[in-house]
Write a structure and sequence with these properties.
Number of helices: 13
Helix content: over 70%
Order of helices and strands: HHHHEHHHHHHHHEH
Number of strands: 2
Oligomer: single chain
Strand order of the largest sheet: 1-2
Strand content: under 5%
Shape: globular
Radius of gyration: 20 Å
């Protein structure tokens, strides 16, 4: 019976990503009626679950921290492609699209996902335990990237408005790539043990408790299906955005709320994968996913939009407003205090979730 259920699950997770991409091809750039929007939403949810399944297969094969890195980078690359595509369409909204998307990703990952995982792990296991050295290094990198790319443009004077000059944008793009490259090297080569789950006694867990490592063929298939599922997630999320925009407008909320909703949809695979790891008492894996996604979002998006700005017309506004800068500063301070002990109670998870709720409240009611 169990073997049959696993077989059905494997078939389901293989079919849904293909359906998602086919549906995306037929709906891209078109006005969708209500029935089709409902169908797209259903397939989108299925693609999210399929992506999580295939990411876990790959993670089981390659081990940590490579598994969480694969999902974080894959989601971000597709997200960056979507941002550049939308910016190419032009319009007033495209000027702040990169900034709003990157900041939403930082707040969702560093407060929403981290807070939820710490809360789930600490409630289920009494205490959430993780490696402070690796998590601290990741947090320091995220804070530096966010400050260089999203805070400095508000205060520079070479160009009017919260924008970088060409030289400044080039520096920010190169610095982002260098820092992200250094972090990935540290995470996967030089100090891999800093990013592995640990026991209550601080011992590194380098062996997954699951039996039956997937074969190379099965891993390759999952890698391809993961890519299809993520393309479907991001593309279909964009497809339902007009409906979301109409709902946001009808509710009298700012248009920036649309970007937050889309970011929440795009980051769903990582959120589910991170919470599952937290339930298994693998909090370090959850933090690798969350902070790795925030880092990849900045480290890959800023260089991409910097390169795209060569041929794209219109301004590129990257500087945050005062309210968002305060939220970013609060996030860095709270995250630092959470990371230093290497363990967390439900209180730390609740604090992060409250900061995330404040971000959502100010997005809806600025």
């Amino acid at each position: 019976m169990i073997v049959r259920l696993r077989s059905l699950l494997a078939q389901w997770t293989a079919v849904v990503p293909v359906i998602a991409v086919v549906l995306l091809a037929f709906t891209w750039g078109r006005d969708l009626p209500g029935a089709i929007v409902a169908l797209v939403t259903l397939v989108l949810a299925g693609a999210v679950l399929a992506a999580v399944h295939h990411a876990e297969v790959i993670a089981h094969r390659v081990g940590e921290p490579f598994g969480s890195l694969v999902l974080a980078v894959a989601v971000t690359i597709i997200e960056v492609a979507l941002i550049v595509t939308l910016m190419a369409d032009g319009g007033a909204k495209s000027a702040t699209l990169a900034r709003d998307t990157v900041f939403a990703a930082v707040m969702i990952t560093c407060n929403g996902i981290v807070g939820l995982c710490l809360l789930v792990a600490s409630l289920r296991h009494g205490l959430a335990v993780f490696n402070a050295e690796g998590t601290g290094a990741a947090l320091a990198t995220v804070a530096t990237l966010a400050t260089l790319s999203l805070v400095f443009p508000t205060f520079t004077t070479s160009k009017p408005g919260p924008e970088f000059s060409t030289a400044q944008l080039t520096f920010a793009a190169l610095a982002s790539l260098v820092l992200y490259g250094l972090f990935v090297t540290t995470q996967t080569v030089r100090h891999r043990d800093y990013f592995l789950p640990i026991t209550r006694l601080g011992e590194v867990i380098d062996v997954d408790e699951h039996a039956g490592t997937p074969s190379t063929r099965a891993t390759g298939i999952s890698l391809g299906l993961l890519a299809l599922a993520l393309v479907g997630v991001v593309g279909l999320a964009k497809g339902v955005s007009p409906t979301i925009e109409s709902g946001v407008e009808a509710a009298g909320m700012p248009q920036s709320v649309v970007g937050v909703i889309i970011a929440l949809l795009v980051l769903l695979p990582e959120t589910i994968a991170a919470v599952r790891s937290a339930r298994r008492d693998r909090v370090q894996t959850s933090l690798n996913l969350a902070l790795g996604s925030a880092m990849a979002s900045i480290g890959l998006t800023i260089p991409a939009v910097a390169l795209a700005s060569v041929w794209l017309s219109g301004p590129l506004v990257l500087g945050l407003g005062s309210t968002h800068m305060v939220l970013l500063a609060l996030t860095v301070v709270v995250s630092s205090l959470t990371v230093v002990p290497g363990r967390a109670t439900p209180l730390q998870g609740g604090v992060h979730l409250v900061v995330f709720a404040a971000y959502l409240e100010l997005a809806v009611n600025p």
